[in-house]
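Our preliminary data section would be incomplete without showing what the modeling component actually yields. Below, a chain of 398 amino acids is followed by its predicted structure, encoded as tokens that our downstream tools consume directly.
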Amino acid sequence: MKILVLNCGSSSLKYQLFDMEEETVLAKGLCERIGIEGSRLKHQPTGKEDVIFDDYLEDHDVAVKKVLEALTNAEHGVVKSMKEINAVGHRVVHGGEYFSSSVIIDDAVKEALEKCSELAPLHNPANLIGIEACEKIMPGVSQVGVFDTAFHQTMPERAYLYAIPYEYYDKYKIRRYGFHGTSHRFVSEEAAKMLDRPYEQTKIITCHLGNGGSICAVRNGKSIDTTMGFTPLEGLVMGTRAGDIDAAVITFLMQKENLTPQEMDNILNKKSGVLGISGVSSDFRDIEDASEHGNLRAEAALDVFAYKVAKNIGAYAAAMNGVDCIVFTAGLGENSGSTRRLICDYLGYLGVHIDSYSNSLRGKAMEISAPDSRVRVLVIPTNEELVIARDTKELLDK
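Predicted structure:
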């Protein structure tokens, strides 16, 4: 069975084609600047040279067509025809309270996604565009939706309710939803395998740390709490997002600076985080370099980030009444030994001890805790696309 996995943004389309017999990637690629001058498709067939197609991509319909042409191209392709593709799995950011698992997409599902667009205006409309483009170009091929929020639908009421008048939850469904669910699910399942423990008998804290970041408490295979909330803005300090903040700061700044809601939203989402503190960059590599060269604001940004991560790990250890292991994943979590060290230095009270040599390695799943560490610490590269492909195959098999 061959499954195409798509992740559609407003002007981009990422894809991977899986052969599920061996769970191997046949090809992957990126359409960027869709509908904008300078658009292109970068196609990467496994075992062959990368290919750049500079054709103008007018819209997502055209982008999907170009992806399928690249996949079936006599020279650069990896399948002989579209008929070899059995299904398409779509990453969908927000499923609201409608979806607690992946689903085959039909009109009712699309209607629910439309309703969720108000909750994720930058993402869900683009996800829907990708779904409808595939339906048009690949009639009769099953489309599956896999939701970033679904894994967190097991959170209890005490974790997802905000302390605002309950009528706003009733009217507008304002609550904590959580994101990065596909990643948290994948790495927690992999961690249980590395622990050689039944997934349903574990207490795992997963740290998805990249330009966007979140932490999840996974008890007995279910998400019971996570740091992101109604939107991906809540929680950790991130590349450009403020994370947790006193809500009164927002109204204070709006009055002092005469800001509109849109301008305030832009500040919190695009100009804050480690970029806002450091004034250097939203890229942690740039900030680490600046810190090493004596930039005190860059050093402060890294300290604030590590402190907030460690504080949330402590909170989730309390929420689960213990923890078996802590997992680092995503770009920063997988690749920055110095960031992992900064965070773990706060966790001595849990009995966390890091092995310096293991912590200096990168690029593979591994344990970085020392033999005497009471809590095991793992690095596991995330693979959200594989989860989407697996869920799609499982639904088709049923």
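The mean pLDDT is 94. The first strand starts at residue 2 and ends at 8. Preliminary results of this kind motivate Aim 1 of the renewal.
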